[in-house]
Amino acid sequence: xxxxxxxxxxxxxxxxxxxxxxxxxxxxxxxxxxxxxxxxxxxxxxxxxxxxxxxxxxxxxxxxxxxxxxxxxxxxxxxxxxxxxxxxxxxxxxxxxxxxxxxxxxxxxxxxxxxxxxxxxxxxxxxxxxxxxxxxxxxxxxxxxxxxxxxxxxxxxxxxxxxxxxxxxxxxxxxxxxxxxxxxxxxxxxxxxxxxxxxxxxxxxxxxxxxxxxxxxxxxxxxxxxxxxxxxxxxxxxxxxxxxxxxxxxxxxxxxxxxxxxxxxxxxxxxxxxxxxxxxxxxxxxxxxxxxxxxxxxxxxxxxxxxxxxxxxxxxxxxxxxxxxxxxxxxxxxxxxxxxxxxxxxxxxxxxxxxxxxxxxxxxxxxxxxxxxxxxxxxxxxxxxxxxxxxx
Length: 392
Ligand code: PLP
Known about the structure:
- This is Aromatic amino acid transaminase.
- The chain is of the alpha/beta class.
- The protein has helices at 12-21, 47-59, 72-83, 87-90, 100-115, 131-136, 156-163, 188-201, 223-231, 262-265, 270-277, 285-296, 299-325, 349-359, 379-389, and strands at 29-30, 93-99, 120-125, 141-146, 149-150, 153-154, 171-175, 204-209, 235-240, 252-258, 342-344, 361-362, 368-370.
């Protein structure tokens, strides 16, 4: 059997990370890994998380099996975080704890494949690198729509033009906020148009919410999602607690199915449980128990998320200013106004290779960098290096 396996090369992102770890140059910069880092370059355990963990450890609850849907308190808390307090909206959702945001995406696409195996999933180009493998895993077709910005902001026309051939029942992935990898977010008017477009074409929005709280704030970042939910009968949501709670390795997320009304969900809700049962059975409890505590008494946690959000915004502004001071061209001008951790630099593979080889600066070949992988001291050398390799 083993000899018959098709060749699979190692994941390019993780190969790059391991090259970085072996780089002996002390000035090396890791802008590859998609994790928040503080000014000391570490990915901290939030104080609110540490407190919740201590309380959980003291309570010493049994590690008995829980439920296929995971932690019920967490699921309710996540529904409120994503959808707000509106009872009509909340009555239309079924939420299930998942193995991170990735697990939520996989549960949801498996659900789509069981209902409409001939559906096409539409994702942005550029887009999150794992969307294609996730969406095609159960055999669905995969197409892309352009996601870009003009001087005036988000290019809605390009997006809707590419989505025009979508058929009823197709799925359109929308990034809830802080688009990965471009940092280009839709404005409220764009969300309104996209929401109306989905309703008119009867395509199903799948909102990937991996960075709630990192863009304009916890509630503001969910405004687009809530609009889509209010105007479309069926919506899917994949949420991650990796970034906004710092629970990366605890693999905590939520898969939400929204139907036209509560009655429509009754026959649907066992299906994601059956899918989970045939895969990993139950999701890990620890991260969800911590998250449930944060969601129940959110004050301290929200303060910490706001501090992380502001650090991202400050780093973006400082990098933008440093690039301007170095005389960088127009392609870099939008870095400062983009949202979230990621930006796509206007650099080709050769320039990214030169950054690695000549300056020990690691981003991915497509020009993707994690802005919050930087410390303030690294901004000036980064801006200098970017200007040197640009155009190669
Ligand atoms: N969706 C997007 C857009 C992401 O950027 C990420 C993580 O980087 C995920 C989903 C997956 O999140 P998780 O690490 O919780 O699986």
